[in-house]
Amino acid sequence: MIRVCRSILTVTALCALLAPMTFAVPAPVRKRTERVDTLAVVTIDRIGFDRWNAITSSLAVSWWVEVDKHMLVAGERSALATLLDGRFEYRLLDGVPSPEELFFTNRIPANAIETVGSRILVTDGSISVIRATPAQAAALEDLHSGDEEEGCRGHASIRPFQANIQLSHQAANSRAVESAQFNAAIQGMVDAVNGPRWYADNQTLTGFNRWTRGSGILNARDWLVSQFQAMPGLTVTTQPFTVPASAPNPQVTAYNVIATIQGTTRPDDWYIIGAHYDSISNDNGHATAPGAEDNGSGTAGVLELARIFTANPPDATIMFICYAGEEQGLYGSKAHAQSIVNSGNTAKVKGMFNIDMIGYTGDAELDCRLETRAIGQSLMDACIAAAAQYTSLVLVTSLSPCCSDHAPYLDRSMPAILAIENDYGTYPGYHQSTDVSTNLTIEMAVQIMKMYVATISQLVGTAPAGLGLESAGVYSQATGTFFLRNSNSPGSADTAFQFGAGGGGFVPLSGDWNGDGVDTIGIYDPATSTFFLRNANSPGGADVFFSFGASGAGYVPLVGDWDGNGTDTAGLYQPSSGAFFLRNSNTPGPADFLFTFGPPNATPVVGDWDGSGTSTIGIFVSSTSVWFLRNSNTPGAADITFGYGPAGVGWKPIVGDWNNDNAQTVGLYDPATGNWFLRNSNSSGVGTIVFGYGPSGLTPVRGDWNGL
Known about the structure:
Structural class: alpha+beta
Number of helices: 12
Oligomer: single chain
């Protein structure tokens, strides 16, 4: 990871602008205190927005600066005591420096700061607020102004103080800390992140000397090409670019490795997942540059995400990029970002996700820093929501990004974000030959990769076809007519048609009989135990018909994807015994699954209760309105039991994916009123969606009638 030096010798003057004249008399404005006789360091570790806001909005605070778990505040001693005493953990500092004596540093070690006689007031281990004279600040800048290879020794930076700024901010202290809505398909992709595989890739990468100016990095390039070429659906190219000379090192040609998977339905929406694969070792003249953390960890992360997304082809296009030349000044990412600008495709880039240093943790807390600018705020919000739902990460955010491979995209008006473990500033192997795989914690990297998988899959539309939004319908046995509606709301039918003979006592069915992602209707004849299935929601003859089970035996027909292959097939329930007979094809033949579940004479239900993609059974006991759901098609106890709805009133159970999250949940239909009561979780509670549809006395059906 590179941190570019910034000059502290130029002061920018602020121009006063004349406000437009107005005839309105402004109300008196209460001002912050201008009296400053003390500074305090306040601990704000996950205190929540209300308490955080109590400090930043208080008129007793003249100014503040936030650095992760701490906030430096200035004000009048007695007023600050009134604000803080008994409410916050804090300590007072000796002396009151003027703003001209305060500076922000990044990646300048504490011993270096102390060596020049300056003082750290607050730090997170990487970013610090220091008190220094101009001469001391200049000495720090000179100390870290260059070495034999890079433009900045240790990639350090120092810049003038700015009041009321979040140098880094905990997501837990934001106004609304929300989690993404659970999606079973996305959870499956998140669960596919393979920590041992990531670690093995990291170990392989450390075997290459990946110094951009050396020859060994070409071997790493070729290995990366081979890894991408082994994945289905990827087009793999290399992009050459020039890294200029830096005495005594000559100019060299370096290469980005780019693997692209074309979007299935949105090919002109581009997402980039990138990391630099070059590394350096300043302690031995780059004779070895294992770079396990910086940045074999991110490069292995790109490979891991590529494996997951190629296994789940995205709607949008994804580019997986491994950059060289980062340590010399972001040359690889600059070359790629500029090529997008030159080709006129800037607007196609919807998000760039940079992975830099994700495997080290200095303590037991798995904390991750996200960096972007305002243009990437939506990416940050998506990451925060995904992390809350799918990971155990503690997030720290910053809108003052610097100097890794997301920066060239931000500089060219493309949204981009960096994920980096939050202890990177204290990593002892940073830019050393001791940066080896044994320093890393697999779970640290796994959690960050899971956050990115969940975030990106939501944006690129990688969730498998899944269930789709299922909505209501009713069937009239008297006329054999289906009335289907494409939303769970009152209104007229979107589709109405007759299928089969009316008055024959047929039972309506719905399912995806051909695996095309659209549910269509069918009927079951109890007298002959025959299924008549149609592949379109329109009048016409049956596309599939077959007998399954004994005729006239009082079976209740079932429909489900019993083997998780994306196609719904038939089943039967025998009320007298509580036995289920399930078949994996819509053809005559014996049951593939035969077992008993629950007491006899219950009402059977079918759904994908755990989001696994496989339908399993359950029962509903109308006398008590209790649901007993099982996550496998085997005998055993219920995995989920809860009460929902009034007992003994004759309401009919109905199951569907009411909110399009790829998980099926329960509902009830009242034949007496035609009202629907649908719930978005398999738990006790009130109906999430309640509406009336159709006249009373009909039979409910549900399905994804339009494939959306």
